[in-house]
Amino acid sequence: MSRLRAAVVSGRYADAQTMLHEVGEALRSAHDGAQLESLAHEALTTLAWARKAALAARAHDAARLARLRRTPHPYRSRSGRSHAGVNLTA
Question: How far apart are CA 2 and CA 8, in angstroms?
Fold first, then answer.
């Protein structure tokens, strides 16, 4: 599960998805009831954490994008024209 957590933290979601398939295989191959219960608990705890981490990363990225859209371009005046009078928005 630590590899799954590392993949989520670093934004490697395709790798995390592959690791989730591995977790599913481990759950399907567990023969002992206690082992299955332990693996299932760890998997559910890790999945809940991964969901929260991914949502937080998405919200952070959305906020950064919103700030970028509001930041004025240094070579444009508020009217959308450059300082030389050339229309940059056309």
Answer: 10
Q: Which residues of the chain have pLDDT under 70?
A: 71-90
Q: Return the exposure string of 3-26: e unless at least 16 CB atoms fall within 10 Å of the residue's CB, then b.
A: ebeebbeeeeeeebeebbeebeee
CA–CA distances in Å: residue 81 to residues 68, 73, 89, 90: 19, 11, 7, 10
Distance separating alpha carbons of residues 83 and 61, to the nearest angstrom: 32
The Cα 60–Cα 74 span in angstroms is 24
pLDDT value of residue 66: 85
Asked if residue 57 lies in contact with residue 65, where contact means CB atoms within 8 angstroms, the answer is: no
